[in-house]
Design brief:
Elements lengths: L21 H14 L7 E11 L3 E7 L6 E7 H5 L9 E12 L4 E14 L1 H15 L18 E5 L4 H13 L5 E5 L7 H13 L6 E5 L5 H4 L5 H8 L5 E4 L8 H5 L2 E2 L3 H8 L3 H119 L5 H53 L1
Parallel strand pairs: 3-5, 6-7, 6-8, 8-9, 9-10
Antiparallel strand pairs: 1-2, 1-4, 2-3, 4-5
Keywords: Cytoplasm, Exonuclease, Hydrolase, Membrane, Nuclease, Transmembrane, Transmembrane helix
Enzyme class: hydrolase
InterPro entries: Exonuc_VII_L, Exonuc_VII_lsu_C, OB-fold_nuc-bd_dom
């Protein structure tokens, strides 16, 4: 029975002698390289990049000065310590090395024994010149960086659609802010087409008014792979964005110019996702804590205010009660005073009327007495006249017959005199009665006016 698990593809048969295993291939490559060591150079020149230092040795890449070709290098620690000059990125360097091939992973690298810096490459000089120009334009000033939106409404991302950077960033954002929309604008992030692709993608997202933060990112790589993020068109496109920008190219040792002009730099796509997306769980927890603190503060404040208002209301009620009692006492005192005034007024009027009545009675009695006295006086005068007439008659009878004519004349004169005197006395009595009546009327009028004045008051 045929083996159903045969990994070889179906199709035309392949001669047995032309199928090698990976191990066989790697062994043959190793043998060829070993046999050709005398044909390989001992010295190689290139630009140093992507240095990684460890206790056991230093790894770095040597990039061709004319194109993007690179080869990995390693220099063991004991050899590195014997060299006095520094290994610097961006420096054109000559290395003395042998070509090593690692059979297990099919990797070729240079085992460096020594190196000599011969000067900076043209690319490094161009980078320094562009950095100086950007600094002069103020684009490297950290104070000019825009703050990232605390709660973005829409996130724009420039990265490779096929790379893991997109997935890492989206996972980081979704874990923190699940509802925020993300628009990914695909771009080439290395190679000759990278510059135009990155510039186009950045400008497209910048023109979208709905996007309020732009992330430009890719995974890590060698300096040669990341060089497009040092190209002036890419750097200027990011620097010209009015929308806040975040650049994360996964390169820890050196900062690209794109990162330098961005508003925020992150180390990895995941870090960029954390930078642009708020942690809603933490926000909700803080909001809950704030609400709890507000509730407690509100309850405390309300309780205190209610207690204070209750005390003020109680005090106000007591004050109102006291004022009401005071007003009632005042009203009672006023009523008492009114009663006393009424009683006093009635007593005073009664007393005054009684006095006036007494005065009137006394005046009337005095008037009657005066009238009676005048009448008595008239009657006495009449009696005197009568007696005088009797005496005259007697004298006339006894003595004055001779002188009758003369005496009668005298008597008649005397009678007239007496009569005139009586009339004068009667007129005087009548005048006194009139004066008494006028006085009484004036007294009554004065009392009436006094009573009216007291009533008005």
């Amino acid at each position: 029975m045929a083996d159903t698990h045969d990994p070889r593809p179906e199709g035309p048969s392949v001669p047995e002698g032309n199928v090698w295993s990976v191990g066989q291939l790697n062994a043959e490559i190793g043998s060829v390289l070993d046999a050709a060591q005398d044909r390989l150079p001992s010295y190689v020149v290139g630009e140093v990049s992507d240095i990684n230092r460890y206790d056991f040795g230093t790894f770095f890449d040597l990039r061709d000065l004319d194109d993007d070709a690179t080869i990995s290098c390693i220099m063991w620690a004991h050899q590195r310590e014997a060299v006095t000059h520094e290994l610097e990125e961006g420096t054109e360097t000559i290395v003395r090395a042998t070509v090593d091939f690692y059979h297990d992973d099919g990797r070729t690298q240079l085992a460096v024994k020594n190196f000599w810096p011969v000067g900076e490459s043209d690319r490094s000089e161009d980078l320094a010149a562009l950095r100086a120009e950007l600094a002069e334009d103020g684009l490297l000033d950290e104070a000019a960086a825009q703050p990232l939106p605390e709660y973005p409404r829409h996130i724009g991302v420039v990265t490779s659609l096929a790379g893991s950077a997109r997935r890492d960033l989206e996972e980081a954002v979704r874990a923190r802010h699940p509802g925020v929309p993300i628009t990914v604008c695909g771009a080439t992030v290395q190679g000759e087409a990278a510059v135009a692709s990155l510039v186009t993608a950045v400008r497209r997202l910048e023109q979208d008014s709905a996007i309020d933060v732009i992330v430009v990112t890719r995974g890590g790589g060698a300096d040669a792979d990341l060089w497009c993020f040092n190209e002036e068109p890419v750097v200027r496109a990011i620097a010209d964005c009015a929308t806040p920008t975040v650049v994360a190219v996964g390169h820890e040792d050196d900062e690209t110019l794109a990162e330098a002009v961005a508003d925020h730099r992150s180390m990895t796509p995941t870090d960029a996702g954390v930078a642009v997306a708020p942690d809603l769980a933490s926000v909700r927890q803080r909001v809950a804590d704030i609400e709890h603190r507000v509730d407690r503060a509100y309850t405390s404040v309300v309780t205190d205010r209610v207690a204070t208002l209750t005390q003020r209301l109680d005090a106000g009620l007591q004050t109102l009660e006291q004022r009401a009692q005071a007003r009632e006492a005042t009203r009672q005192r006023i009523a008492d005073i009114e009663h006393r005034i009424t009683v006093a007024y009635e007593a005073l009027v009664t007393s005054r009327l009684t006095a006036i009545e007494t005065q009137l009675n006394d005046a009337y009695q005095a008037l009657e007495h005066a009238v009676e006295t005048d009448a008595v006086t008239v009657r006495a005068a009449q009696r005197r006249v009568g007696g005088l007439e009797s005496r005259i008659d007697t004298a006339y009878q006894t003595r004055v017959d001779r002188e009758l004519g003369a005496l009668e004349a005298r008597i008649e004169d005397g009678y007239r005199e007496i009569e005139t005197d009586a009339r004068v006395q009667a007129g005087q009595s009548e005048a006194r009665r009139l004066r008494v009546a006028v006085i009484v009327l004036l007294v009554v009028l004065g009392l009436t006016l006094l009573a009216l004045a007291v009533g008005v008051l």
